[in-house]
Design brief:
The protein has helices at 5-9, 24-28, 34-47, 71-84, 97-107, 114-125, 129-143, 168-171, 175-205, 221-229, 272-277, 279-282, 284-287, 302-316, 335-339, 355-369, 383-392, 413-419, and strands at 15-22, 51-59, 88-91, 110-113, 209-215, 246-251, 257-262, 290-296, 323-328, 347-349, 370-379, 393-401, 404-412. The chain is an alpha/beta fold.
């Protein structure tokens, strides 16, 4: 008989019942859909390698301060766990330390909330030093105010969700030790951030055009990066398949090279501790010249997912950045659905696995990177300005016209913003040719 991964590795198998509490306050939230949120929790649990035994939903006017759910529902949950042989209960909302302790004592199973589940998945995915530091910092920040509520979780055997990352030895330390560890992790993270900032400054000085892929988790960002740049990145149809930041160069049809960066995926109710810990990584979107918002166009919750991404980008200060919406996975949409895939700004509909669609996307990126064509007439003895023409963009045509050189140039927007004014006097679109002002090259 084929063994499960938990049997092979000796890891304790988590067998869980998922619990959702729906209150009038939650229903009022614009982006909240109870069914979608629960379906997403199932996907999160499966990503964390949890066997989902069933789900339990309660509609209630308010959360119970002691049990979170009502006492009667807690008894129903206990019976369901005993009947199915479950050893874990996973809640779709964040629990307080007291609620965890009370539920654990009553149910005699491990209690995990949505935040802890997401943190656990991030702990599985983190591979680089920066990612590991960020995850541990988020986990300890989440754990610190809940130390008194951990109850039997501290004495249970290691393994399974809720115990990855820092590990049980960290959970058993006192608040002072955890605060010291958080301070040390922040110091290490600041050093990593300093190195990242140096790399960003170096790219800015070289004039490299930067594109950031952002979007909801499992929208296809890593697939798109791999297909565009042939990068060796992990791709899988699961939530948060990739976590660590990946940057690869992409050569455009005109010969210019840009840098494309894959960022961590967003999700509804992304834990604040996680956003804070990963701010340095997420801010890559703020530094980008162009943001490609990758959207899973086959998702029933596409509109809500796009709004979640908008909210996170606004929190990061990247909401005003130039952005192109990439409606991905159109091969999974009906013709009627495709026609509805529109937005106010520039957009493109693609499947990341179709070459013609990728070519269309690359052309769109180049059009944002390379501006409109301009024609310059420059005296042949102005060698510094002729050299500048080749720096400001891609020379499409050039010819000798008497004592002048005529250049048709597709300008690089980034370079033109910096030095284009030096050529303004020689632009044939101008009515007169006057001597340029300022420094010449």
């Amino acid at each position: 008989m084929k063994k499960t991964i938990h049997e092979v590795t000796g890891e304790i198998q988590d067998r869980a019942v998922l619990v959702s509490l729906v209150t009038p306050q939650l229903k009022k939230q614009e982006l909240y859909d109870p069914d979608h949120s629960l379906a997403e929790l199932i996907s999160l649990a499966e990503t964390a390698r949890v066997e989902v035994l069933g789900t339990l939903t309660q509609n209630k006017e308010y959360t119970d301060s002691k049990w979170f759910i009502g006492k009667g529902k807690a008894e129903e949950l206990k019976a369901m766990l005993e009947q199915t042989g479950g050893n874990t209960a996973i809640f779709d909302q964040e629990l307080s330390g007291a609620q965890v302790r009370n539920l654990e004592q009553f149910l005699d199973v491990k209690i995990i909330d949505r935040t802890q589940l997401i943190l656990d998945i991030f702990a599985q995915r983190a591979k680089t030093r920066e990612g590991i530091i960020q995850v541990e910092l988020a986990q300890l920040s989440y754990l610190l105010p809940r130390l008194y509520g951990q109850g039997k979780n501290l004495s249970r055997l290691g393994g399974g969700i809720g115990t990855r990352g820092p590990g049980e030895t960290k959970l058993e330390t006192d608040r002072r030790h955890i605060r010291e560890r958080i301070a040390e992790l922040k110091r290490q993270l600041q050093e990593v951030v300093r190195h990242r900032s140096l790399h960003r400054e170096r790219r800015k000085k070289t004039g490299v055009f930067q594109v950031a892929l952002v979007g909801y988790t499992n929208a296809g960002k890593s697939t798109l990066l791999r297909q565009l740049t042939h990068a060796d990145v992990y791709v899988e149809n699961q939530l948060f398949a990739t976590l660590d930041l990946t940057s690869r160069s992409l050569e455009l049809p005109g010969g210019m090279e840009i840098v494309v960066t894959d960022t961590v995926g967003f999700i509804q109710n992304l834990p604040h501790d996680l956003v804070a810990a990963f701010r340095a990584t997420l801010e890559e979107a703020c530094e980008a010249d162009l943001i490609l918002q990758v959207v899973d166009s086959s998702s029933e919750m596409m509109a809500a997912q796009m709004k979640v991404v908008d909210q996170v980008l606004e929190e990061l200060g990247a909401h005003g950045k130039e952005r192109v919406t990439v409606f991905n996975k159109i091969d999974l949409c009906s013709p009627e659905q495709k026609e509805l895939l529109t937005t106010d700004g520039p957009f493109v509909r693609i499947s990341a696995y179709r070459e013609e669609d990728l070519s269309l996307l690359v052309e769109l990126i180049e059009s944002r990177f390379m501006g409109t064509s301009r024609t310059y007439r420059i005296p042949v003895d102005k060698g510094d300005l002729i050299s500048l023409v080749y720096r400001v963009g891609e020379v499409l045509e050039n010819e000798v016209d008497g004592e002048d050189m005529r250049f048709k140039v597709r300008v690089n927007n980034k370079e033109y913003d910096k030095i284009g004014y030096l050529l303004a006097a020689y632009d044939e679109a101008r009515p007169t040719q006057e001597e340029p002002k300022g420094e010449t090259w």
